């Protein structure tokens, strides 16, 4: 027995030096995974860098939890596009993210096809983009700018991430549910739904790195993260179902001729699309609409707030980039101060687009993607996949791989996205994976970019942002790449800098 202990300790010491976690008897690599769960994205990147971009983990013997982490773009293309039908979300993924219901993120097969058709059709409605831009600009003018003005006048520090989360929660609620919670107010009111999203995402991330038997036991006992997830689910369902009931009432009155159809409403578009296919399905309309809305809220709210937070973090660390974007704004919108800049005009700003893409490359709002095969397969890299393999695509790590982005992959270079002729340079979606790739490409990509372009340009135009000295910025351990301690900054009005 002493000899066995010495051997295990030697293996542990050797593995620590090599960067590879020790594969312990019975427990596998679980101790290392749990120990590093607070920095799981950077830990996964370290493992992948030490193992050539692909890493095969080993979970406890009783859990059937042996993940294969990948970053090879050809493997990603194979999984997400070329052999898409062989890699559904799978039961493991659905069990982890059951909190979201059966929306686009969790569903497979026929139900996913219905979700995709209904959601895409509603988002592509002729009036949707105009409504989105109106909602965003209203919130900018009546919420964001007045708050930033007050903070600037009082020379106080502020958590910019908190402001972005409130901003996006308000705009997404208004766009999807026709309900503005008004979280973005001068008194920064407490909102249980906003908090519920954060707590729910933290719990879901912990599920992903914990054996199912353990988190299901916590769920049964209602302790730890599972208790918080249960409370978060109750809070969000209350909010969403109340909004659905109000929208349903308005829709019924309109159908019965009791009121005129007024402004475009996303709920109405969803109901009409669902009505067209409902005769061919057994979908329960209220549950279906709830799942669509919760999915879009979850995917859109925190991912866009995350993207904005990391963008301004990168901007604060790269003042030269900030100067070039400011110059581009003045060039494009000279004489249009006080007007609402539309996304068609903003889309012509090549350097701003490059800076946004560069930030998304390094800090992908959705760091991981999970896949399970229906049939055994061999990836283009030569790695074998069997029925028990749980594949994790590390989008976060892909942005940090020299093999994918070159020797300067850790540098923040918007020029990476500018073509030799001065236009926007496009990269394949299986290399730049922020919006995923293949049939499951993010349906809200245009919606996210609209908010990113409007909010980033208007803030840069009016304010210079500095990071608070001594404030530590780290990724939080959640399913969306938020900042663990927020983004503490100081604001200075451009007009006061001359």
UniProtKB/TrEMBL annotation:
The scientific name of the source species is: Lactuca virosa
Indicate which residues the UniProt annotation says bind heme. Answer: 442
Q: Which InterPro entries match?
A: Cyt_P450, Cyt_P450_CS, Cyt_P450_E_grp-I, Cyt_P450_sf
Gene Ontology BP terms? lipid metabolic process
UniProt-recorded name of the protein: Cytochrome P450
- Alphabetical keyword list: Heme, Iron, Metal-binding, Monooxygenase, Oxidoreductase
Q: Which family does it belong to?
A: Belongs to the cytochrome P450 family.
Cofactors named for this entry: heme
Q: Which domain of life is it from?
A: Eukaryota
* Molecular function terms, GO-annotated: heme binding; iron ion binding; monooxygenase activity; oxidoreductase activity, acting on paired donors, with incorporation or reduction of molecular oxygen
């Amino acid at each position: 027995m002493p000899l066995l202990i010495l051997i295990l300790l030697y293996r542990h010491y050797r593995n620590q030096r090599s960067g590879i976690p020790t594969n312990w008897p019975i427990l596998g690599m679980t101790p290392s995974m749990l120990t590093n769960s607070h920095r799981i994205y950077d830990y996964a990147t370290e493992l992948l860098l030490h193992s050539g971009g692909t890493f095969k983990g080993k979970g406890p013997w009783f859990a059937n939890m042996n993940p294969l982490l990948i970053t090879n773009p050809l493997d990603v293309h194979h999984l997400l596009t070329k052999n898409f039908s062989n890699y559904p979300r799978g039961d493991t993924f659905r069990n982890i993210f059951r909190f979201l219901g059966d929306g686009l993120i969790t569903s497979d097969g026929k139900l996913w096809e219905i979700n995709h058709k209904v959601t895409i059709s509603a988002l592509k409605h002729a009036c949707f983009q105009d409504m989105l831009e109106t909602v965003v600009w209203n919130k900018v003018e009546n919420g964001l700018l007045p708050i930033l003005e007050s903070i600037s006048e009082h020379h106080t520090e502020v958590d910019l991430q908190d402001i972005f989360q409130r901003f996006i929660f308000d705009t997404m609620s208004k766009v999807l549910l026709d309900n503005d919670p008004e979280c973005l107010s001068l008194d920064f009111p407490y909102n249980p739904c906003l908090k519920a999203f954060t707590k729910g995402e933290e719990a879901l991330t912990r599920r992903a790195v914990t054996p199912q038997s353990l988190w299901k036991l916590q769920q049964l006992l209602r302790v730890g993260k599972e208790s918080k997830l249960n409370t978060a689910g109750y809070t969000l369902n209350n909010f969403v179902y109340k909004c659905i009931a109000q929208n349903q009432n308005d829709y019924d009155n309109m159908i019965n001729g009791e009121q005129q159809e007024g402004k475009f409403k996303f709920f109405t578009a969803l109901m009409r699309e669902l009505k067209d296919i409902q005769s061919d399905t057994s979908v329960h309309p209220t549950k279906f609409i709830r799942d669509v809305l919760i999915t879009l809220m979850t995917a859109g709210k925190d991912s866009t707030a995350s993207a904005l937070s990391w963008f301004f973090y990168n901007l604060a660390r790269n003042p030269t980039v900030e100067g070039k974007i400011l110059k581009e704004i003045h060039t494009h919108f000279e004489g249009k101060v006080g007007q609402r800049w539309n996304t068609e005009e903003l889309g012509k700003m090549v350097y701003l687009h490059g800076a946004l893409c560069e930030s998304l490359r390094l800090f992908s709002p959705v760091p991981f993607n999970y896949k399970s095969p229906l049939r055994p397969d061999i990836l283009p890299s030569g790695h074998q996949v069997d029925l028990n393999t749980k594949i994790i695509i590390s989008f976060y790590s892909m942005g940090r791989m020299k093999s994918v982005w070159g020797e300067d992959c850790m540098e923040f270079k918007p020029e990476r996205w500018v073509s030799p002729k001065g236009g926007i340079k496009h990269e394949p979606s299986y290399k730049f994976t922020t919006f995923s790739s293949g049939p499951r490409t993010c349906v809200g990509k245009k919606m996210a970019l609209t908010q990113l372009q409007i909010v980033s340009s208007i803030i840069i135009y009016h304010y210079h942002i500095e990071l608070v000295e001594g404030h530590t910025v780290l990724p939080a351990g959640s399913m969306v790449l938020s900042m663990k301690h927020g983004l503490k900054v100081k604001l200075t009005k451009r007009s006061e800098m001359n």
